[in-house]
Amino acid sequence: MSGSAGRLSQWLLPLAVFCGALALWEIVVRVREIPPYVLPAPSLIAKTLVQDWSTLSGSLLVTLRITFEALFAAVIGGAGLAILFAQWRWAERSFFPFAIVLQVTPIVAIAPLLLVYLESETAVLVCAFLVAFFPILSNTALGLASADHNLVDLFDLHRASRFKQLIHLRLPAALPYFLGGLRIGGGLALIGAIVAEIAAGSAGQGAGLAFRIVEAGYRLNIPTCSRRWR
Amino acid sequence: MPGPIVALKRAGKTFGNGVSALEALDLDVREGEFLTLLGPSGCGKSTALRMIAGLSQPTSGALQWRAGTRPDVGFVFQEPTLLPWASVWSNVYLPLRLTGVSKAQAGPSVDKAIDLVGLTGFERAFPRELSGGMKMRASIARALTMRPPLLLLDEPFAALDEITRMKLNDDLLALKAELGTTIVFVTHSVFESVYLSTRIAIFAARPGRIAETLDIEAPPVRGEAFRLSPAYADYCRRASHALHAAMGRAA
User: Fold this and answer.
1) What's the number of domains chain A is made of?
2) Tens digits of residue pLDDT in B3-23
3) Which of A48, A172, B20, B135 could form a disulfide with A223 if both were Cys (CB 3.0 to 4.6 A apart)?
4) In this complex, is the C-beta atom of A119 within 8 Å of any C-beta atom belonging to chain B?
5) Which domain holds residue A2?
6) Region B77-82: what's the mean pLDDT?
7) Which residue, B11, B152, B4, is CA-closest to B66?
8) What is the C-alpha separation between B38 and A16, in angstroms, rounded?
9) Which of B52, B81, B136, B151 has the most A C-beta neighbours within 10 Å, making it the best mutation to test the interface with A?
């Protein structure tokens, strides 16, 4: 297969399939005359997106900002704690159970509490941070422990300090694992932010995407809802 | 004649789970020799090597170093064990880097080590771009950068094909002849041990101990002629016989 044909199938094929799926959706809605409050057609969703762009773009920015702030905090906290765990086993034994407790606690269960303790925007940020934090922590910790044991022996043979071992061996070995954690954490930070926003239900200046979704849902404005979930 | 570089005096190793890997091992490593530890799996030959390297401490007995403390030792593992994200040059530089030598200062030693194993021209290649034999060469070069008086190899060629292994055997003998390094080599191949060594220590298993030692009288650099000679065949027979006797006793 030539290079250009390869590129063609790489970009064109998924695009064609995506357009085909949208077209099928549009046809089903029109042929069966499904009302827009049950299932809006893609064309209607697109139209609503353009019409309401001024309010939606502001909310999008709010949610994205919270997502990225939470992800940034999760990277610093998760990777930092993983390094701490790798350097001191007792730290891992003492604190890892807390990380697991946080991980298995449903975020919707603690979001209302956080909303009581904190300002709503901070609470949303903390929720998004909590869900993004664990995959980054556990993946980085796994990566730091994954260094080839023979290479660890080699470092011991040359009497390398734990710090040198971390810099020259464990951190580079952990990088692919960390990036895997980042990929999962990035998606989760967005979900965490949206779920927390729904729980917070805050309106006005700092209203994020989730608030717009809830608001539109109350008014049976389903095209707006759909556009946001996609 | 000066004393051995290192002597294991009734060195024993019992692991935490109660398994005894070695029992009261007496072994001298003499200056300039090529000593092979030959034995079946689980006979403690690797444990003995790791003790000499300082990677494992004896639970009984002791090691006596001629110099008082352990000098620099080079160690080659069963796998090439290279940093996958670093070039050949950086991998060979690693031991010097860990001891705080700058890149500029280390340059000549690193280049020389790479030249000794015949990898000149591949300095900037990454491990994934090398064949199995070349990776092992890089690993040997890394063990040689510090010019250690003692080189320890733990079944380094076990995973390589026969042809590559024979070539590396010859190259290792040539290296030894050029540098005069004392070598301790672990293998479970009778043929390899006879081809390389000046002395073979044959291990028996459970608990690990030396059953017999065999001196090999042959020129330092050997070749096809030695491999085909009656003397080689005779040494192989004797080593093989001793090995089977040791295993029989263990079973």
Assistant:
1) 2
2) 788 888 888 888 888 788 888
3) A48
4) no
5) 1-33
6) 90
7) B4
8) 65
9) B81
